[in-house]
Amino acid sequence: MSHxxxxxxxxxxxxxxxxxxxxxxxxxxxIRQGEIFGLLGPNGAGKSTLVRQLTGLLRPDAGSVQILGxxxxxxxxxxxxxxxxxxxxxxxxxxxxxALAAETxxxxxxxxxxxxxxxxxxxxAELGLEPLAARPLAKLSGGQRRLACFAATLVGExxxxxxDEPTTGMDPVARRAVWSAVDxxxxxxxxxxxxxxxxxxxxxxVLDRVAVLDEGRVIACDTPGGxxxxxxxxxxxxxxxxxxxxxxxxxxxxxxxxxxxxGRRWTVxxxxxxxxxxxxxxxxxxxxxxxxxxxxxxxxxxxAYLRLGGRHQGLAK
Length: 317
Ligand SMILES: Nc1ncnc2c1ncn2[C@@H]1O[C@H](COP(=O)(O)OP(=O)(O)OP(=O)(O)O)[C@@H](O)[C@H]1O
Description:
The chain is 35% helix and 26% strand. It is an alpha/beta fold. The chain has two domains: 9-224, P-loop containing nucleotide triphosphate hydrolases (Rossmann fold, 3-Layer(aba) Sandwich), CATH 3.40.50; 233-298, Alpha-Beta Plaits, CATH 3.30.70. The longest helix is centred in the middle third of the chain and has 18 residues, at 172-189. The chain binds adenosine-5'-triphosphate. Adenosine-5'-triphosphate is lined by residues 18-19, 21, 23, 41, 43-49. GO terms for molecular function: ATP binding; ATP hydrolysis activity. Residues 9-240 form the ABC transporter domain.
């Protein structure tokens, strides 16, 4: 008889209210070992509330959280030994230099001084942070500080990494360094990663599975491919006007009623057949003269998300 491996993290019926607001409403999740698992959802969906309960920082009103077989509701103090957590709030280590913050995290996690130092040097090199090693966290730019906090989270390795919006404020080079570091830990050490993110398109390439949270509930849980199958067959037409859209053109006026309009950019989700007709209509006559740019694209994970929780626009952060 074969046994399924122990899940890394198992959440059942998790419920938490902040006063009147039910931030988590019976959440069930199972994260497998070695998986990069994404938690998506609009602002206020309850992602941070969920994550803070997994990390033992917040006590649920009801439900259970097991991490590698440990009951985190009963023993919240065990979470620190099982997971590395990068939260959204600023760190208590803000007065320290980048190197010392990382080293101190390693020491707090039980590494000897020399091991903490060696790991810090490795992680700073991996993330391109060596030039900032001697600078206090409080004196760095937002993106630099975020990367330094991410570095500290990696020192004193834990089997589970919980990363709440790790790339907020980072430039593309730093973002790429974060995703490669995450991917490398999974490939080389079997680390499990729970990633909370708004940046769906960026995260799509590293995620094995995704749960979509909306108003405190899991409304979908699947692979990125599985979620995208929800919008299979649809295409997205983006139009960018030079100035005001030419609403005197009947086809454009009709489009205005159903497009998501964001300034000069209009987005329409439609079938390939209709997209061809729309493109023909806007690339002729006065509409074309008013058009700055247009693109037709196959669906992304963000389109799948919008289809699921479409009334929210929270992922466009
Ligand atoms: N300490 C608190 N006191 C009162 N209400 C809170 C508190 N923390 C969160 N909430 C409310 O609970 C709901 C869920 O918040 P949460 O921070 O978990 O959402 P989120 O999905 O992490 O959002 P974001 O993407 O903006 O970070 C929101 O309606 C929020 O206003």
